[in-house]
Amino acid sequence: MPTFDIVKEIKADKTFRVQSVIGQFDLKNEHIKENFKGNIDIENKKWNIGAIVGSSGTGKSTIAKKLFGNQLIQNFEYKEKSILDDMPENSVKNICKIFNRVGFSSPPSWLKPYSVLSNGEKMRVDLARALLEKRDLIVFDEFTSVVDRQVAKIGSYAIAKTIRKENKKFIAVSCHYDILDWLEPDWVFDANTMSFFLPQNTKDQKLNWKSENVTDHYGLNLGNIII
Questions:
Q1: Residue 50, Cβ neighbours under 10 Å: how many?
Q2: pLDDT by residue (tens digit) across 166-202?
Q3: Residues 2 and 78 in one domain
Q4: Domain count, the chain
């Protein structure tokens, strides 16, 4: 299973401002040390969608980079005058199919450069590109973090449907717990509590999260929310 014990150390310069804050807030020194420890038990399990969620500063991005760094969607280079020409080698028919499957369904927008697209469109284009590159595992950091929640809902639903249809693996890394309702992940790692959860079948055959410790962005309990 992917197990991690990450020590993150940062040391600020001993400037006047740094020493002033150390004294004012009774800090020990300018040396900051954080430790993130846990496991994501997905080995030998059948799954398509996972989620790493948690508030800002809980280490979710650090964990994702440590465990799945090579699969992270990041730093795609877009330099062509149309998104169509920025996609990997593929037939036009297949590119259009994938665009539609991730919810990027406006042909006029396909002719635009990446730089002028909305944040929601950019999110979908990044995912489409990862799918067209034939990656078996796609890890999306800051998933839906820069889009409004209605766009996030529609995008999450479309992406989840596509990932399962293509039989790929997708991990969303996000500070937003509402994506759990829309993605319906096969597993969740909550960085707030460093806890791993699997859904379980209840008597009515609907999915319910096992633990009462999964909390949303506002501190509400998600343990009894059916997804």
A1: 23
A2: 899 999 999 999 999 999 999 999 999 999 988 764 3
A3: no
A4: 2
Instruction: Provide the domain limits for residue 20.
Output: 1-37
What the block records as the tokens of 25 is 């807030």
Distance CA 65, CA 67 (A): 6
For residues 80 and 102, the answer to whether their CB atoms sit within 8 Å is no
Question: Can you spell out the DSSP letters for 119-145?
Answer: HHHHHHHHHHHHHHTT-SEEEETTTTT
Residue 64 φ/ψ, nearest 5 degrees: -60, -40
Rg of the chain's alpha carbons, rounded to an integer? 20
Q: How far is CA 97 from the centre of its chain?
A: 23
Percent of the chain that is helix, strand, coil (3-state, to 5) = 35, 20, 45
CA distances from residue 213 to 188, 189, 196, 197, 222 in whole angstroms, order as listed = 12, 11, 10, 10, 8
Residues 186 and 46: their CA atoms lie apart, in Å, by: 9
The predicted-structure confidence for 17-75, as pLDDT tens digits, reads as follows: 888 888 888 887 777 777 778 888 888 789 999 999 999 888 998 999 888 878 888 77
- 125's CB contacts (< 8 A; 6+ apart) are 83, 104, 114, 117
* Sign of the alpha-carbon dihedral angle for 153, 158, 162, 164: positive
Q: Is residue 222 part of a domain?
A: no
My answer on whether 33 and 58 are in the same domain is no
Could you read off the pLDDT of 104-120 as tens digits, one per residue?
A: 999 999 999 999 999 88
Tokens at 73, concatenated = 């969607």
Task: For residues 137 and 40, give the distance between their C-alpha atoms in angstroms, rounded to a whole number.
Answer: 15
**Is 217 inside a domain boundary?**
no
